[in-house]
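Request:
Um, any thoughts?
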Amino acid sequence: MKIAIFTDTYTPDINGVVSSVVTLKKGLEDLGHEVYIITSHKGFSSDTSEDHVYRLPGLEIKKLYGYKLGTPYSRAIRDEIAGLNLDVIHVQQEFTVSVFGRIVAHQLQIPVVYTYHTMYEDYTHYVNRFNLKSLDDVTKRLLSGVIRYLGDSVGAVIAPSMKTEEALRRYGVSRPIHIIPTGLDLEAFKRENVDMQAVQQLKETYKLDANTKLISYIGRVAQEKDIDIIVDGFQYVSDPNVKMMVVGGGPSLDDLIKQAKKLGIEDRIIFTDKQPSEMMPTYYALADAFVSPSLSETQGMTFIEALAAGLPVFARHDEVLDELVYENKTGFYFEDGKEFAKKVDDFFSLAVEKRVAFKEACQKVVEKYDVEQFAKHVESVYKEVIRDYEDSYSIENVRTSDDCMRLRLINEKSQDEVNLLVSLDDYVTFQLRKDGFIEYSLFLMLKKKEKYLLAYRACLRKIRVKDRTRKEMYDFLVNEEDPLGIDQINRLVETLESKGYINDEVYTLMYVERYGSSLSKKKLIRQLRAKGIPYEMIEQHLQMITEDDELAKAKVLARKYQDSIRNRSLKEKKDMIKNKLIKNGFTFTQANEVVEELDFDEDALKENVALSNAYDKAHRTYARKYSDKELVNRIIQYLLRKGFNYDDILRELEKRELHGSE
């Protein structure tokens, strides 16, 4: 394969990204691939003097470790890249050179892989000088949006650790994420492979004698690395032969030097400033232990380098170290400066042979970070992205559909035509457009999202017809023919709530206002509970309904029932009214009180008519099966059950000239 790696930082800079890029380049070349580096340099013109390395002009920003802010576009370099016939582009960062890589990939239709190296949420202090929480929150939200956009606009993302992958998912990145720890040339850091004469020269340069025990920090010297913690803690190290060395440069260097002087330990802490990257194995070989209090690492390359050199690691606990630093085996954890000092004293008080015993365990724990394995894992991601890109869909037509976009696609291989519904957010995020392309993996992801989108639109249609509660929408989604997963259903319902399409509080208020004048409290509660409204919320809205209000509603309902019930005895009519009131949630006492207050004079006058009608019905029912005495008894029993008076029944029988035994 022909591979171009776009990186905003490269040799001679010293940092984890540079180490990763250098290692990846070597590993891929050892696998037989052709690798090109596109980066920046301090200058006003492009530099192509190095083999397979293209450097864009850039300005040095000293406050950011001498970072080179390169130009975001170079037509000349772009034309040279076009002639390389690249198979894949790998962007390593988020700034100007990497932006250039994305532009080139878009113009030349080359698939892109993106490695997320830096936990930027740990770097917000650079724009939040006054430590304002509101500004910090805004900055982190903006970062989240930017990283989500960058992650979702490539074929695949590489995360060097699970910590990084979790951060990307938290930001909302939905493209495939591959956890691939950065590899390392482990052999280069082993003491037996280091030039010991160079080590001896460093000892002489920094005046380290045979009795000196050295613990070193190696890396950028910046606020997010929290080096001030170990500088402060070092004053408590009791062994006078123990010294600490800070190898590296950065914006916090002067402050740390001042801190050491203020504490009176400037003769025990050595600050080397920035050193050449090729000297790093020598500096590791110079030390007896390694320390870094940083919690901002995405993987922690310096930790791995130190362990490869056989050095026990002193660190604050971070999940990226869970499979690297094992207490009292490959290193030691501390929470503050004083605990750091105590553990340093404890370690250096061990016999020499016990300290040496750490070496084998340290080197064993980093064997999995072999360069070849690292390169092979990245190679497999390239192949997957290229395969997806080749099996892509062309966007033949685009039209709006409410708040979505409906795409007509044609598969480049099979020429199959398919329609796809995408949200406006996804349409913008994934940079879709007419005559553009959708890689196969993105198509599959969008197809899964389409199911969610269709369910969302079905919910809106249902809500437009009638207001719904959270439970009603949840039940609707669960009972669909091809339902979403539970997590998706919960997310969709939460989305409906956040957009104001469903609101149980408002629903309860409106329901009580609409039906509160006609339904009892109990029935309101029963119906709202059936709709999933919490009891506490219902009670809150029913507090204003008094006992007098309840009786007034019962009276209104009772009159309606009184008018609607016909051809019944007065007793049966009263019983029926009471039962209906009780079914509607009114108490037995309330039902009795209301019925007693009703005016049944007119009903009493009509009772003879009701009795006559009931008699006719009973006679039609029983005359088919019974006669004479048995018929009379059946009719009497029926009319008694209906609540008619016995004497009235006898009079009705005499009137009908039907006589029989009582």
